[in-house]
């Protein structure tokens, strides 16, 4: 069928994940790529049967939809270029690094009326989908939560420790589960936060308390220098003598009262692209471009989610008071 031509700007690690999934989708033609590093673009194009073009603008003109998979600080510039040509956008997280830029993207998406999707793949990871399902169905009514989102290092790729490129550690890693708090518990009312520049030149340790608008509250910690000791990512949700607990994106356990056994779903044998939600987020993006809905389109993050997440992160940095 190959109805949709997709272009890619930035041909690094995550672009390879997306292209590997998109090339199996009959509705997609992988078109052209642009990367500032010509060798990277050429290798990528050869691997995925695409062509390299000499500018982002050329890729956008050649495409129906464009993946923005460059380092964080270039997301806004590239997204606005794509939107200025009225093309659909899939942008990797983060949405933007400040609220002024975030507002510009919201306005441009709404003005052009295109499909915009933000790469919060964890929303589609089976572990987190199960958590959301147990909450949405009313099987567990959350009262409070305990979240940790750590990172082993800020060394790979090397730009991850440079706040001028990432926007700060919150915008690089922690934001995945900041988005998750809204996905699972609704909108944030207030965050209390302390942080420190412990190991890297950026704020790399955060201790936070989240109060949600519906009265649910929880603690959230995030450190950037823990080694990759397991589990570096964990969500625990507490209800009325009930709990749901995740182990990374490998497994989710839940216990719904004092007298029933713990149920555990283990997803560790799924391919990583499915386990981490990448496969489904790409399938939904293509469905949205085609105007199809398998019933799960509303699980993905939109430009409005992007804006709200930036608002929360700016507020946290302001409260910590040490810059980024
Ligand atoms: N959703 C997720 O789980 C997830 C996972 C990894 C990365 N990411 C995000 O994806 C983005 C890319 O990360 P990565 O790990 O693929 O990085 P990477 O360093 O492997 O790749 C980035 C690529 O962009 C190219 N590039 C840099 N500046 C450019 C520019 N101005 N124009 C065109 N090309 C440019 C680089 O040469 C490189 O090939 C980041 O924003 C990161 O936060 C998201």
* General form: globular
Provide the structure class. Answer: alpha/beta
Q: Would you list the SSEs in sequence order as H and E?
A: EHEHEHEHEHEHEHHEEEEEEEHHH
The ligands found in this model are:
nicotinamide-adenine-dinucleotide
Give a quick rundown of the structure.
This protein has 324 residues and is an alpha/beta fold. 36% of the residues lie in helices and 23% in strands.
What structural keywords apply?
324 residues, Rossmann fold, alpha/beta, 2 domains, Dihydrodipicolinate Reductase, domain 2, six-stranded parallel beta sheet, 36% helix
How would you describe what is shown here?
With 324 residues, the chain is α/β, with parallel strands linked by helices. The protein has 2 domains: 4-121, Rossmann fold (3-Layer(aba) Sandwich); 123-272 and 302-320, Dihydrodipicolinate Reductase, domain 2 (2-Layer Sandwich). 36% of the residues lie in helices and 23% in strands. It contains 11 helices and 14 strands. It has helices at residues 13-22, 38-48, 56-61, 75-84, 99-112, 126-136, 163-166, 169-185, 272-275, 278-290, 303-320, and strands at residues 4-9, 28-34, 51-52, 65-68, 88-91, 116-118, 144-149, 188-196, 205-212, 217-223, 233-238, 243-247, 251-255, 263-266. Strands 8-9-10-7-11-12-13-14 form an 8-stranded mixed beta sheet. The chain has a 6-stranded parallel beta sheet with strand order 3-2-1-4-5-6, sandwiched between helices. Helix 1 (13-22) crosses helix 10 and helix 5 packs antiparallel against helix 11. The protein binds nicotinamide-adenine-dinucleotide. Nicotinamide-adenine-dinucleotide binds at residues 9-15, 34-37, 40, 69-72, 74, 92-93, 119, 121, 157, 172.
